[in-house]
Amino acid sequence: MYDSLYAEAAELGANSLKVPVKWSMIEPEKGRYDFSYVDHAIRMARQNGLHLVLDWFGHYGSGNGPLYHNLSGEMYVPMYIVSNEKTYPRAIDGTGTVHHAAASYDSPAIVDREVRAVRALMLHLKRVDIHHVVTGIQMENEISVFGGSTQDPSLFRDDSPASNRKFAKNHFHDDLRYSAWDLSRFWMRPLTEAAHDAYPIPLFLNYVNGSAEPGLAGGSPGEDVATYLENCPDLSFIGVNAYFCARWNGAGCAVPSPATTEELRQTLMRFEVGRNIPAVTETNSGNSEAAPRFAYVAVGEFGVPIFAPWSLTWSYPGQDEPYVLHDGQLANGAASLRRAYQSLEMALPPILTYAGTDKLAVFQAATSGEPFRTTATINGETMEISGEDGGQAIVVHPAGQQILIVGYRVQLGVTDPGLVWPEMRRLRVRRVRWVAGHWMQTGAPYYSVVQGRRRLWIVLQYPEVVLVSLP
User: Fold this and answer.
1) Are strands 134-139 and 51-57 parallel, antiparallel or unpaired?
2) Which of 215, 413, 433, 460 is deepest in the core (most CB within 10 A)?
3) Rounded-to-integer distance, Cα 311 and Cα 292, Å
């Protein structure tokens, strides 16, 4: 039912598609594996020039239920796990209530079965994905014990007898820190070790943007970046699910967020913990400038390995504004996101090389929808940048007289003593894109030189990359 979305993702300018793979899907019966859906997704991605990131939903730790939301399409573990509570014990909350949809990971039985399933999936990928279409695996989703991002202390950890014994034996006093230690060490560590040993491609987790307690970055109980990184050495990074809304109501986002640049930046700075590389595993989708603005900040300032708006067919936190309509047409915020994706893709390796250094700067309005004009010095070169109508730019000045400008709906001015005849004959201004390790010229950009002021002006109206070599 999602086959048409591969072509739409490519048209949107994405280079990858995140595709869920449920444990129940690949192990319909105990010990019998079926990878036909995975193989089909790989074929579809190749046909449309895309890579895949697979979302492994074994324990779907979100508001839709850890083990299942219902027993039809939204069931994450196989039925033999769901139906056998004796072999695969369930978690008990702080009030003594047993949750049939929440597994107790203090019993090794369910962990053992999931480790087997993950190992089988990774060995299958190693065998069949000879073109390396799959570039990484998201392990689970928004990990917690009972699902959801909650502030209810009775749901901070599993209070089953086995869990309580472990809590006391290891001298814990804080439920949240215990959950992070327990789930990372006795569930995620064996899972990621098995996956990495079978097929060593990047493995990562995603957390909700929030905090259940000061010092615990993540949001849902039991999520703690530092603890997971320490206990799971095979994790490549931990990403954030960051949604921006000025005011929420019961139906979702009542007032869209202005998504200030500082708000976007601070969200990722919270995840700069230890060896972690911040990543955006979910964010606003729909008719909003939040995602394209966030993309430039995330890629340019942090070098994120993933930037993934929530969905193509369902917008969030706003409602009824999907990127792809029922008839397959791109709509709502798709044009804005495509401008960001297309421009970034034209120069992605050089951007990531200098991301987060003083040789690169991101320029956009401080608040969505506003024009901007600013003067900045990048690696010793002073420039004037302005933009309007959602315009933004990434400017790289690696060394010497070379300047790289990536963006749209912006203009850049730079003053240089060589911008006068005859030295000006050495000036080179090219429209380019990065292909197979080098710059390929794609045309002539719009620029002008005011010799009297020794000033170069470059205009980027549409998504493009301009490479300047000053005299």
Assistant:
1) parallel
2) 460
3) 14
| 170-194 pLDDT, tens digit each | 999 999 999 999 999 999 999 999 9
The predicted-structure confidence for 371-383, as pLDDT tens digits, reads as follows 999 999 999 999 9
What integer is the mean pLDDT of 434-445? 94
Q: CB-based contacts of 5: which residues, under 8 Å, 6+ apart?
A: 17, 312, 313, 324
Q: Residue 471: is it exposed, middle or buried by C-beta count within 10 angstroms (0-12/13-18/19+)?
A: middle
In angstroms, the CA 172 to CA 210 distance is: 23
Q: Residues with Cβ < 8 Å from 84, sequence gap 6 or more?
A: none
Domain positions in the chain: 4-354, 360-469
The domain made up of 4-354 is a member of CATH 3.20.20.80: yes
The single residue listed with the structure tokens 């969200």 is: 267
- The CATH class given to the 360-469 domain equals mainly beta
For residue 448, the cross-strand partners are 457
**pTM of this structure:** 0.95
Print burial letters for 63-85: b (CB count within 10 Å at least 16), e (below 16).
Answer: ebbbbbbeeeeebbbbebbbeee
- Is omega for the bond preceding 422 within 30 degrees of 0, making it cis? yes
User: Cα separation of 308 and 243, whole Å?
Assistant: 12
For residue 233, the tally of other CB atoms under 10 A from its CB is 11
Distance separating alpha carbons of residues 364 and 258, to the nearest angstrom? 13
Q: From the CA atom positions of the chain, what is the Rg in Å?
A: 24
Burial of 357 (0-12, 13-18, 19+ CB in 10 A): middle
Confidence of residue 73 (pLDDT cuts 50, 70, 90): confident
